[in-house]
Amino acid sequence: MPFDGSEGGEITLQEAVAMTTRYRDANLNPVKCGFMGKDIINQLLDQPGAMGLRIYFALNEAQQMTVVLVGATNEGQDMLDLIADRAEPCPSNCPSDSPLC
């Protein structure tokens, strides 16, 4: 399926809180979230032909949930010349006052 850059969409804080609470309550993995800086995200998006990001859920060597990000073309193909990981996980790098955490 071709991509046009409009995929994804905004949700309300209430929806986000409900979704993240369900994830935590399911006790699937102790990792609640991760942070990746804008530099690597911009590098992925600035690749010629990138229409957006594909997010792969993964486990690191410590068996903690993480994400692997790659650029994706408008044809839906992964761009594998630059691959991002190394997100800062929560716990231990958690926001102090977010209702999503």
Summarize the structure.
The chain has 101 residues and is α+β, with helices and mostly antiparallel strands.
Strand-helix topology:
Layout: H1 13-26, E1 33-35, H2 38-45, E2 52-59, E3 65-72, E4 78-84, E5 88-90
Antiparallel strand pairs: 1-5, 2-3, 3-4
Characterization of the model:
It is a single chain. The strands form two sheets. A three-stranded antiparallel beta sheet has the order 2-3-4, with helices on one face. Strands 1-5 form a two-stranded antiparallel ribbon. It has a domain at 31-90. It is 22% helix and 29% strand. Strand 3 and strand 4 form a beta hairpin. The protein has 101 residues and is α+β, with helices and mostly antiparallel strands. The chain has helices at residues 13-26, 38-45; strands at residues 33-35, 52-59, 65-72, 78-84, 88-90. It is built from two helices and five strands.
Task: Give structural attributes.
single chain, 101 residues, 5 strands, 22% helix, 29% strand, globular
What's the rounded overall pLDDT mean? Answer: 82
Number of helices: 2
Question: Strand tally, please?
Answer: 5
Question: How are the strands of the biggest sheet laid out side by side?
Answer: 2-3-4
Helix content: 10-25%
Amino-to-carboxy terminus distance: 33 Å
Radius of gyration, taken over Cα atoms and rounded to an integer in Å: 15 Å
Q: Which descriptor suits the 3D outline? A: globular
Beta-strand residue percentage? 25-35%
Major β-sheet profile: 3 strands, antiparallel
Would you list the SSEs in sequence order as H and E? HEHEEEE
- Regions with little confidence, pLDDT below 50 for 5+ residues: none
